Amino acid sequence: MRQLLGAQRRELLVKWIERTGSVSALEAATALGASVRTIQRDIEELSTAGRLTRVHGGAVGAGRRKPVDAQLRLGILVPTRGYCFDAVLAGAEQAAAASGSTLIEADYDYTDDLAAARYARITSLELDGLLVTPHLPATTWGQLCRTDVPVVLIERPWELGWVRDLDPATSVAAARSPVDHVFTDHEAGAVLGLDHLAALGHRTIHCLIRDTPTAPTLLRTASAYGATIAPARGVTLGITRLQRSSDQRRVLTDALEQVFRDQKPTALFIHTDEDAVAAREFLEDRVSILSYDDGLPSNPAGGLSAVAPDRVALGKRAVEMIVDRLSSRGHHTHDVHPPTKLAIVPRLHQRATTSRLRHTQQA
């Protein structure tokens, strides 16, 4: 499409609104071959001239106003969709529909450039609020510190332990920025899983934890459990961190061979689901296996026992939190209503891969 002059674009926008009654900046940008920001500037100019009325996300005919009870426009930005964040989005969609809000979705791969590009794109859409699972590098944290709409974080922590490597100015801003936060209580989930195995009579347990954003909490909790609770229950707890690799199955099988040479556990607590499935195939039901995630698309009653974070609830509660903050219109600042942190405790689903320890196993 040939590049339109500014005056031509603006005339087309006016005619579009005369024909349809409204125009979306994103839709117009796509149709007219311009950036969303360019269309927004056109709309601002036309609004100043009295030829249309600017509203969130676009424009309507001159003299028309967006109703006071018009839909909230909420952006949600999460990592590349897989079984985990598909569930988060499903919950967010349910809550948005229930509240009459418009949910604009975007995702990013785990690269700095793509995360920054997706963030810039979704925040250019004149949102009322933003729901985000942030990428960890400094650029993302700096962007969030400068966001001028209410933000709800989903999962990733917003605390000094995660921002220590940022430049001083961004570190201070991140530490002071009040944000609402809904997250899985992975500490409670890890204890729930280890307690389950101990209650089944297992006294030699080993944790294998893949290097993911969830891993630091699971490793920290397992280590604390091994130093405090496990000895009181006569449990020996081993821990192995599985590094990410192009051949993750090989990393897992090498770790399993080492574990069974050194410890001979009767139960394994494994993060992720894929590693738990691979371990089950490798060991052929020689030990009890409990997975941490329960996010595989199909895990029937005869499948993996698992500790299951409720990711649908994460999405639902995130939308409910931001709608609640925005519903007071003009009184939603954190000075008036302090930020909220909401921890959602995982559930235990016992299936075929964990069972009470038999004496023959113990021997």
From TrEMBL:
GO terms for molecular function: DNA-binding transcription factor activity; transcription cis-regulatory region binding. It comes from the Bacteria. Residues 6-61 form the HTH deoR-type domain. Keywords: DNA-binding, Repressor, Transcription, Transcription regulation. The keyword Repeat does not apply. Pfam families: HTH_DeoR, Peripla_BP_3. Gene3D superfamilies: 3.40.50.2300. The keyword Transcription applies. InterPro entries: DeoR_HTH, LacI/GalR-like_sensor, Peripla_BP_I, WH_DNA-bd_sf. This is DeoR family transcriptional regulator. It comes from Kribbella speibonae.
